[in-house]
Amino acid sequence: MNEETNYTHECERMVREQLLGRDIRDERVLQAMKHVPRHYFVLPEHRYLAYSDGPLPIGHGQTISQPYIVALMTELLELKEKAIVLEIGTGSGYQAAILAHIADEIHSIERDKDLAQRARATLKKLGVKNVSVHVSDGSKGWPENAPYDGIIVTAASPQVPQPLKEQLNNDGRLVIPVGSRGNQFLERWIRRGEKFVHEQIAPVAFVPLYGEYGWKDDQWDW
Ligand code: SAM
Fold first, then answer.
1. CATH number of this structure's domain 54-204, picked from the four choices 3.30.230.10, 3.40.720.10, 3.40.50.12780, 3.40.50.150
2. How much is the pTM?
3. What are the tens digits of pLDDT across the range 203-215?
């Protein structure tokens, strides 16, 4: 099985059973998940599992998130037309490719330069032109292109990093897993002027967000 193997049925089944079956309703998200070939973003030995209902290892101790979680987090952003989005944790580049179908401009930050390089190559191979991958500590955000209409963090933070709140546009949404190993909740923060409305969405299990406003290298396993 290679990248050219036809996975259309697996992909359609994923959308039907894992997304529609769990109440993902945003048509733009469903269309994006139907069109982005997830099997390009996983390791060759896991290609046959690309559309299965779970996360997969992508090397360097990291993972590509479960399809349902990718869809849920994208839906929670409630992106308007011509949105500019910041993603923290590029990983394989799959989430960025989904966002690229819906938003105008995506800035995706990855701390691991090898993963960033691989994600860039995959996105290029698929002709995705509106994603810029930057190597940096994403816990500080990416002030260069702020403010963002949506910010999505795909690694768990001990708390919501203040710079991310500051880089959010008015009425923008920040979607982020908050907590430690074994005790995390997906949260959504909506900016209303200088105030934020926030809600807890669901328990989740992400790898750690490291960095200045994230976990310190030796803290995660405590
Ligand atoms: N969104 C990814 C995808 O679609 O494949 C999955 C991301 S993976 C669950 C989490 C990623 O966050 C890892 O690639 C990890 O290296 C990255 N990460 C962790 N801390 C980071 C930080 N401070 N800045 C940028 N990336 C970070």
1. 3.40.50.150
2. 0.97
3. 999 999 999 999 9
